[in-house]
Amino acid sequence: MAGISIRAVEKAYGAVRVVHGIDLEIAHEEFVVLVGPSGCGKSTTLRMIAGLEDISGGDVWIGQTRVNDLPPRKRNISMVFQNYALYPHMNVRDNLGFGLRIAGQSPQVVTERVNEAAGILGLSELLDRTPAELSGGQRQRVAMGRAIVRHPDAFLFDEPLSNLDAKLRGQMRAEIKKLHQKVRTTVVYVTHDQVEAMTLADRIVVMRDGHIEQVGTPMQVFNHPVNTFVATFIGSPPMNLLPAVIHEGQVLLRDGSLVPVPARLRAKTHEGQDVVLGIRPDDICPVGHGLGETDEGTDIALTVDLAEPLGMESLIYTSIAGQEVQAKLYGPRIVQASETLSFRLALDRAHLFDAATTRSLDVL
Amino acid sequence: MIAFLRTRRTALIPLLLLSPALLTMLFVVALPLGFSFYTSLTAYRLVRPETIEIFVGLRNYIRLLEDWEFWRVFGRTILFLAIALNVEFLLGLGIALLIAKITWGQRTLRTIMMFPMMFSPILVGFQFKFIFNDNIGILNNALQSLGLTDRAIPWLVDGRLAMFSIIFAEVWMSTSVFAILLLAGLFAMPRDPLEAAKVDGCNSWQVFRHITLPFIMPFAFIAMTIRSLDVARAYDIVHVMTGGGPAGRTELLWTLIARTGYMDARMGQANAMAYLSTLLSIAFTWYFYTKLMQARRYMGGVQ
Ligand SMILES: Nc1ncnc2c1ncn2[C@@H]1O[C@H](COP(=O)(O)OP(=O)(O)O)[C@@H](O)[C@H]1O
Ligand SMILES: [Mg+2]
């Protein structure tokens, strides 16, 4: 039983603070993904959990132990690195068994566990090769195998898939998920790719500039982003953001057009409030070509600037109030540029953010 | 017909282009090598040039095989090589590890480290001859002033001590070859496997032993190859410091060969010795080169 508990953890390099007192409780066997743009402090946080970076402030607990002052080898964790970090002079078998041998396990146990891990990861044929003789995907698998043989309290992954090509990345993503279902262990996974975060996580932790912006299940984070940063970072294509003002109970866009305030937010707005209307492309669809019935919608005529047919759906570039907006069309219908269509905005799934604080009115 | 001429001509071009190199090799390497090998089969004495025509077959070699003194010197040279290389390796490794840790003044230190290599071995020999001199040498002076000893230690007069002194000079002069190459290895070392090993449960010593050391060994083998060739032909330092004495106790292969060839003027015999010594160098080079190639197999193409 080992969850991980991060309490007011800070990291400073000299005078530069890169992690600003973050709190996070990770449950036993939970798969948590830290996601955020490059340089936001994800790796630093992970490395503090691993013990590869000193903790400048706060505490990290693994299970019942405060690990701040423990070296990595005493934390019983495994880590998979972006560059795989295999031992170049050892073959796959020795790479996998190294940690066990260092821990003083008997040769039988080492062989047994290595074979078990190799079986799980499809490495049985490759045990005698050196890392130089493996492809990127195979190296990645060895790195994961090295992590699982030791039966650690937690796995830490630092952008494990970012050196792979797109196809392989998709495959390995699925394998990691399967692996977690087979080998249930606490996982902390770092990535800058929101798709990986959405697909893998039990809970997503969105980070920016050394702060945690939001923690939640993928669906919570997707459906209820707490601010415009999370709203645009999670989801692809990103949520459209339109600056507006509240006027007589309506959302007044920059070109003077009016959109009703979503019913659930009416009580939270006031006259003259500067807001940002956020609406995902999937929630702006030509009438009759949406994701299904919307309880609450408003229709608006828009001219198509560009359409990208993707088969069963098309991505449509148009503009609302002079600002480029992406919309979706579901169904195998061809759309021409400069065609004018009636679009329905699904207001029950639209968001309003306070313009000054960028925070969602839902959470205020 | 024309086509035939053309193919003949194109076939000649590589040979033509190679000829300067081939001729140089012929005159600079092959001929002297052949000539010296021939003289090793004669009773050639430097002072009587006509003896070069007295062909004795393998007699010089056979005499060598039975020559106790020669084999003792042969063995001593191997011992000298083994000690010098190991000490230089260990010291060089220590220095490289220390310098790799330093962040400030590293360049300066690296430069200073190279100083001993900038002197001619002859001068190094003279310098250490002075340092180790039992009457006026600063080492004995220092030891006596510090009260560590009250008598003059015969550094260059006692056989064992003289050998030690020569090795000391050799090590002083050349440890930086190891240090520099190992430092280059440490700089080239990726950081990730070190961190992976720490997470995998290694303490600092285990990380060094299982990850760092295997990674930098190829660099050590390069240094060993260079230095084994260097030490196997050691002559200048020995000649200057002890001249092979006392009573031949510091005689190494090349001092013996030079004595036989130039002092005793028995050039045929000396050349036979030289050929056998070359085998030693080849053996060492081949050994380290094989080690290097083994180690390099895994160095290529890994992230
Ligand atoms: N050793 C270091 N010294 C100074 N600054 C560092 C160091 N390592 C990382 N940083 C800074 O810390 C910030 C967070 O880095 P990191 O955790 O690697 O980000 P990422 O979220 O991309 O993994 C970055 O701005 C980076 O420049
Ligand atoms: Mg990173």
UniProtKB/TrEMBL annotation, chain A:
<comment type="similarity">
    <text>Belongs to the ABC transporter superfamily.</text>
</comment>
<dbReference type="InterPro" id="IPR012340">
    <property type="entry name" value="NA-bd_OB-fold"/>
</dbReference>
<dbReference type="Pfam" id="PF00005">
    <property type="entry name" value="ABC_tran"/>
</dbReference>
<dbReference type="Pfam" id="PF17912">
    <property type="entry name" value="OB_MalK"/>
</dbReference>
<dbReference type="InterPro" id="IPR008995">
    <property type="entry name" value="Mo/tungstate-bd_C_term_dom"/>
</dbReference>
<feature type="domain" description="ABC transporter">
    <location>
        <begin position="4"/>
        <end position="234"/>
    </location>
</feature>
<dbReference type="InterPro" id="IPR015855">
    <property type="entry name" value="ABC_transpr_MalK-like"/>
</dbReference>
<dbReference type="InterPro" id="IPR027417">
    <property type="entry name" value="P-loop_NTPase"/>
</dbReference>
<keyword id="KW-0067">ATP-binding</keyword>
<dbReference type="InterPro" id="IPR003439">
    <property type="entry name" value="ABC_transporter-like_ATP-bd"/>
</dbReference>
<dbReference type="InterPro" id="IPR047641">
    <property type="entry name" value="ABC_transpr_MalK/UgpC-like"/>
</dbReference>
<dbReference type="InterPro" id="IPR017871">
    <property type="entry name" value="ABC_transporter-like_CS"/>
</dbReference>
<keyword id="KW-0547">Nucleotide-binding</keyword>
<keyword id="KW-0813">Transport</keyword>
<dbReference type="GO" id="GO:0005524">
    <property type="term" value="F:ATP binding"/>
</dbReference>
<protein>
    <submittedName>
        <fullName>Sn-glycerol-3-phosphate ABC transporter ATP-binding protein UgpC</fullName>
    </submittedName>
</protein>
<dbReference type="InterPro" id="IPR003593">
    <property type="entry name" value="AAA+_ATPase"/>
</dbReference>
<dbReference type="InterPro" id="IPR040582">
    <property type="entry name" value="OB_MalK-like"/>
</dbReference>
TrEMBL record, chain B:
<keyword id="KW-1003">Cell membrane</keyword>
<feature type="transmembrane region" description="Helical">
    <location>
        <begin position="12"/>
        <end position="38"/>
    </location>
</feature>
<keyword id="KW-0472">Membrane</keyword>
<feature type="transmembrane region" description="Helical">
    <location>
        <begin position="207"/>
        <end position="226"/>
    </location>
</feature>
<dbReference type="Pfam" id="PF00528">
    <property type="entry name" value="BPD_transp_1"/>
</dbReference>
<feature type="transmembrane region" description="Helical">
    <location>
        <begin position="112"/>
        <end position="132"/>
    </location>
</feature>
<keyword id="KW-0812">Transmembrane</keyword>
<dbReference type="InterPro" id="IPR051393">
    <property type="entry name" value="ABC_transporter_permease"/>
</dbReference>
<keyword id="KW-1133">Transmembrane helix</keyword>
<feature type="transmembrane region" description="Helical">
    <location>
        <begin position="272"/>
        <end position="289"/>
    </location>
</feature>
<feature type="domain" description="ABC transmembrane type-1">
    <location>
        <begin position="74"/>
        <end position="288"/>
    </location>
</feature>
<protein>
    <submittedName>
        <fullName>Sugar ABC transporter permease</fullName>
    </submittedName>
</protein>
<feature type="transmembrane region" description="Helical">
    <location>
        <begin position="78"/>
        <end position="100"/>
    </location>
</feature>
<dbReference type="InterPro" id="IPR000515">
    <property type="entry name" value="MetI-like"/>
</dbReference>
<dbReference type="InterPro" id="IPR035906">
    <property type="entry name" value="MetI-like_sf"/>
</dbReference>
<feature type="transmembrane region" description="Helical">
    <location>
        <begin position="161"/>
        <end position="187"/>
    </location>
</feature>
<keyword id="KW-0813">Transport</keyword>
<comment type="similarity">
    <text>Belongs to the binding-protein-dependent transport system permease family.</text>
</comment>
